[in-house]
Task: inverse folding
């Protein structure tokens, strides 16, 4: 039986950040994840914003962690080699009511400790981004954009480099206390651990109950998105958001991604299904209509993909009020940390939350720092980001860098090979995609997918029918067309 | 930096045909750059027959058709490199390519764009639903089955009646899969009539027009698709939904010219073809950069790709000899029944072949080319369908040098 | 009785209307060339088709060699011929035009390779 000091349940951005922060100490760490990779849930299904923290209630855990997470992110991105740009953000308004709302949130932001926010005139706005519409705006210099998948992968890889073990394809179905340890039953094996940290995202209420905490009610706010071609990206330099409504929510908006695409969305509607990620015609039609108001180039010829994410918010069933992030460690349930209702801005808050979770452990026992802890994750060098000189040198050093596999994103065989040999042992097609950007371009794998699956088979010595698209039952092939036998 | 008279980007049917013709015209300083390990382009995976009847007077499979040109290229000793991907072209015709042997930089006098086309994807047509494994474009499925020896599924539904989709319906059936049906959102098939017969009818595969997939279901592998009938605005009709249980969905929903490099070089594209706008010399908006084949307009037959590329080669040879080609200031305009034309610009002083497609099926029509109120070319057709590329030769003797050319379909 | 055909002899795909009595063609119209009449005649008596597929290659730089028939076979024998093709295994190198199965099932035509496959390095 596998035995750990700490078992983290869930390899979303919060679980991976917790594992990474724990890996600073001499602990045996396991991360149990039901999917075959990290960031398969809502950690990858969002806008990729590094939020500044001006819409969250002062004094809340959300506000505190968002501001803290925002301020440290330049260092984090550098340490973990995560694509990140501190672009700033424009929150634009047209009416006096918009101005009132913007000013209200500017005041909240200031109270939360968000730095540098200022109102700008139409002229100043145009200087910041020529494509921004609106009569006036609040400029928030600390907002940024990042690749949420790369970030989660980087946290996990860094944790793994520092000794944490990732156990994929293990859905926790029950937890029981036995002596001084917990036994977590999964669909594959029983895992023993002294501590359990619940980072199960949308399933956090279920895990919470398994640990003896309440099954906190959460409500799913689903949002759908369009991903637009990089050709549309040149029309959008920085995130331009409409003035928030009275509750601090934003209408459908367009956001540039750190890789140069444009995301249009999300809209927002309530869903019952924990993993109801299907996109719907009704909402796609709505996004097209609303998207056009915020982004002139919301054009069909730019559409390359759709996706949906769900923010599972904790709420008070009596008042209906949306509640703050919950991070608790109750002595009635020794050696547990329970994180529930972590939704947007979960990416921005992941590391601050992780530190607070680790602190709960540190309050109970002495944590011995690992002497050889290395906070840096090198990541895979991208051919597409190299200068001509660097490219020439890279090819000389490793000829695989001269073989373009994904034409749209200029991803080479060297990058795909390194991705297949990733430190977490993930080998799904989607996993390769999220690590390299191969198949993410406008042809959506039309050219490179056949090569990637071939490389997965060759590198790992597996049969075609063993290749997985993204999930355990997601086989790509039923076998060979012609079998030697 | 290496200097070359002509760089040909892509060693598929268009590139190879252009190369051979250029050589015959005395142009020897040629370099074909091909990203695959072999020449031949997409034809390598098109193993069905039916190619070459127009060009060679006999019916061949794709690989055989390609081999005719590959053999010529090899016999003539036309220089080519494989496993080399062009990643940039500048307006002054500097070509950058990547290969395992290193980064390649070439200064060309002329560049021939023959990169072919790519397939429209699920994302491009925004099919609602989940995102399981088992959704393939027809060309990807074709590559897996015909080149890589991998079977993509057993219970198949096909969306789109493009030729590759229908050909894959037959191919999958021959290999033991069960193809339940082909659905087409338009009220007419987008592929050729003979493929409906020999790929679908022959195997009892139904084709449903005015139907589309309105939902994809399945978390891991595809489990089913929901199909709805559509109205005349192509919108799904509520209440007509029907669920088909299947493990594979093949998409054959259109091809788009592959023009990332053309754009990098500053070539102006035509909104309608999504390929370069060219003149009667197949020259793009950038002097010295030419385009032919599916990178220019999606063809129905490879024979026409070869012939188009051969015409292009004549112009390139002339450009290299004379340093420029005569200007083409006259526009080719179309009416609402025509999707597009190639060329988009003419001079009025040179014979040329006009290629076009009709927007919707028409019976007993005349296609008229009109300049300054005079009919300068005409083709009568018993039946014109969008699946078919129509070609009309035009004689310079009939043209003037001042009026734009109008193309009309008269029913 | 009028019967309708789509000719598959060439990509033109003529729509042919034929007058048929007792399975015999009396007249045909709509065909652009004489092949259309031949086609209708053949369809009425015994429809013939070509098929393309692949055979397994041993020791080649590609796993498969594409094949087709160098003549037509009766439509109702397609799956019988596929069974034969499925059973074949050939050794690299493969040359285009090479006969893979001679006179398949005695139907009077051969299965031929349509691709060169070099031996693996």
Result:
């Amino acid at each position: 039986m596998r035995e750990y000091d700490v078992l983290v349940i869930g390899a979303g951005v919060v679980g991976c950040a917790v594992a990474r922060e724990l890996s600073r100490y001499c602990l045996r760490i396991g991360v149990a994840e039901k999917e075959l990779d990290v960031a398969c849930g809502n950690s990858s299904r969002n806008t990729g914003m590094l939020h500044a923290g001006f819409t969250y209630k002062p004094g809340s855990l959300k506000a505190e962690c968002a501001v803290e997470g925002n301020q440290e992110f330049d260092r984090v991105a550098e340490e973990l080699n995560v694509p990140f740009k501190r672009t700033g953000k424009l929150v634009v308004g047209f009416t006096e009511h918009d101005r009132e709302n913007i000013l209200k949130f500017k005041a909240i932001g200031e109270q939360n400790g968000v730095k540098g926010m200022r109102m700008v005139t139409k002229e100043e706005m145009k200087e910041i981004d020529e494509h921004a519409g609106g009569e006036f705006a609040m400029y928030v210099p600390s907002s940024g954009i990042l690749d949420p998948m790369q970030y989660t992968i980087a946290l996990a890889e860094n944790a793994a480099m520092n000794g944490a073990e990732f156990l994929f394809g293990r859905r926790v179905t029950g937890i029981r206390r036995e002596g001084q340890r917990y036994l977590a039953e999964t669909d594959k094996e029983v895992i023993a651990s002294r501590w359990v940290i619940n980072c199960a995202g949308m399933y956090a209420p279920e895990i919470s109950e398994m640990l003896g905490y309440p099954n906190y009610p959460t409500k799913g706010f689903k949002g759908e998105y369009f991903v637009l071609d990089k050709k549309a990206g040149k029309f959008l330099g920085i995130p331009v958001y409409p003035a928030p409504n009275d509750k601090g929510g934003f209408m459908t908006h367009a956001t540039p991604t750190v890789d140069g695409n444009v995301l249009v969305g999300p809209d927002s509607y309530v869903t019952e299904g924990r993993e109801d990620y299907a996109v719907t015609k009704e909402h796609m039609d709505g996004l097209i209509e609303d998207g056009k108001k915020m982004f002139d180039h919301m054009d069909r010829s730019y559409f390359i993909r759709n996706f949906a994410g769900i923010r599972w918010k904790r709420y008070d069933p009596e008042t209906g009020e949306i509640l703050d992030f919950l991070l608790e460690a109750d002595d009635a349930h020794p050696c547990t940390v329970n994180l529930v209702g972590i939704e947007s801005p979960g990416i921005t808050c992941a590391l601050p939350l992780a530190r607070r979770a680790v602190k709960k452990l540190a309050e109970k026992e002495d944590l011995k720092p690992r002497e050889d802890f290395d906070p840096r994750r090198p990541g895979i060098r991208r051919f597409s980001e190299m200068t001509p000189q660097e490219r020439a040198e890279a090819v000389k050093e490793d000829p695989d860098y001269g073989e373009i596999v994904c034409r749209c994103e200029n991803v080479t065989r060297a990058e795909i090979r390194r991705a297949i040999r990733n430190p977490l042992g993930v080998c799904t097609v989607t996993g390769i995609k999220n690590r390299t950007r191969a198949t993410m371009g406008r042809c959506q794998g039309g050219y490179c997918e056949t090569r990637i699956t071939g490389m997965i088979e060759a590198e790992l010595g597996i049969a075609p029918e063993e290749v997985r698209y993204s999930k355990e039952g997601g086989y790509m092939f039923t076998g060979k067309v012609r079998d030697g036998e | 930096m290496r200097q070359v008279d002509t760089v040909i980007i892509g060693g598929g049917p268009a590139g190879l045909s252009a190369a051979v013709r250029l050589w015959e015209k005395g142009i020897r300083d040629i370099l074909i750059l091909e990203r695959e390990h072999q020449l031949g382009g997409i034809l390598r995976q098109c193993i069905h027959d039916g190619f070459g009847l127009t060009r060679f007077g006999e019916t061949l499979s794709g690989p055989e058709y390609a081999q005719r040109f590959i053999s010529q290229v090899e016999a003539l000793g036309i220089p080519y490199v494989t496993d080399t991907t062009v990643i940039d072209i500048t307006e002054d015709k500097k070509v950058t390519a990547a290969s395992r042997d290193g980064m390649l930089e070439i200064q060309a006098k002329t560049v021939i764009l023959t990169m072919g086309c790519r397939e429209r994807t699920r994302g491009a047509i925004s099919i609602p639903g989940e995102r399981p494994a088992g959704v393939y474009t027809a060309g990807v499925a074709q590559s897996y089955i015909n080149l890589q020896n991998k079977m993509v599924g057993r219970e198949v539904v096909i969306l789109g009646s493009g030729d590759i989709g229908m050909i894959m319906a037959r191919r999958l059936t021959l290999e033991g899969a069960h193809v339940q049906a082909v659905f087409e959102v338009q009220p007419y098939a987008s592929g050729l009539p003979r493929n409906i017969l020999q790929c679908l009818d022959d195997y009892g595969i139904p084709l449903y027009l005015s139907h589309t997939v309105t939902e994809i279901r399945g978390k891991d592998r595809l489990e089913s698709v929901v199909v709805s009938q559509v109205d005349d605005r192509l919108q799904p009709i509520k209440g007509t939904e029907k669920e088909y249980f299947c493990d594979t969905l093949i998409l054959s929903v259109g091809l788009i010219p592959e023009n990332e490099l053309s754009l990098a070089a500053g070539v102006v594209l035509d909104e309608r073809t999504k390929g370069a706008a060219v003149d009667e010399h197949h020259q793009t908006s950038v002097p010295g950069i030419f385009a032919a084949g599916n990178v220019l307009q999606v063809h129905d037959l490879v024979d026409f790709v070869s012939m188009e590329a051969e015409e292009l080669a004549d112009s390139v040879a002339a450009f290299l000899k004379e340093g420029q080609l005569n200007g083409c200031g006259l526009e080719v305009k179309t009416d609402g029944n025509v999707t597009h034309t190639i060329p988009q610009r003419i001079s009025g002083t040179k014979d040329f072949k006009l290629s076009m497609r009709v927007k919707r099926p028409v019976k007993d029509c005349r296609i008229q080319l009109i300049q300054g109120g005079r009919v300068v070319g005409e083709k009568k057709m018993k039946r014109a369908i969008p699946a078919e590329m129509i070609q009309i030769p035009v004689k310079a003797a009939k043209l003037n040098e001042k009026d734009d050319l109008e193309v009309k379909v008269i029913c | 009785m009028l019967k309708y055909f789509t000719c598959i002899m060439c990509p033109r795909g003529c729509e042919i209307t034929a007058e048929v009595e007792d399975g015999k063609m009396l007249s045909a119209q709509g065909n652009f060339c004489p092949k259309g009449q031949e086609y209708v005649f053949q369809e009425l008596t015994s429809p013939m088709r070509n098929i393309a597929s692949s055979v397994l290659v041993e020791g080649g730089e590609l796993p498969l060699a594409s094949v087709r028939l160098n003549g037509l076979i009766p439509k109702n024998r397609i799956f019988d011929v596929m069974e034969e093709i499925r059973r074949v295994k050939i050794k690299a190198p493969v040359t285009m035009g090479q006969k893979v199965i001679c006179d398949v099932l005695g139907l009077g035509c051969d299965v031929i390779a349509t691709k060169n496959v070099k031996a693996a390095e």
Notes: Residues 302-322 of chain B form the longest helix (21 residues). Chain B has three domains: 1-119+254-325, 121-253, 328-411.
